[in-house]
Amino acid sequence: MNENAKPKKLLDQVRDVLRVKHYAYSTEKTYVFWIRRYILYHGKKHPADMGTKHIQEFLTHLAVERNVAASTQNQELIALIFMYKKGSWY
Fold first, then answer.
1. Which residues lie below 8 Å from residue 73, measured CB to CB, with a gap of 6+?
2. Statement: the pTM of the whole predicted model exceeds 0.90
3. What's the fold here for domain 10-86?
């Protein structure tokens, strides 16, 4: 890699990991969607600066204020677990 090259953005790194692991394209789109929503909800904080408390706040927001189904909350949680466990962006 060129040492002057700009590092990839977080969501691009997530996409790369999903593709290397041969996840379906629909899964990639869903994970990136929920990770982006999570980051935007918390004022564009980097996930490395957030944790369990932030995930709980977001899930509560989805359930209480957005009235999303439990399956939607689970989908979002799985995307965030993937990001925090599989990511090498920290």
1. 59, 62, 63
2. no
3. DNA polymerase; domain 1 (1.10.150)
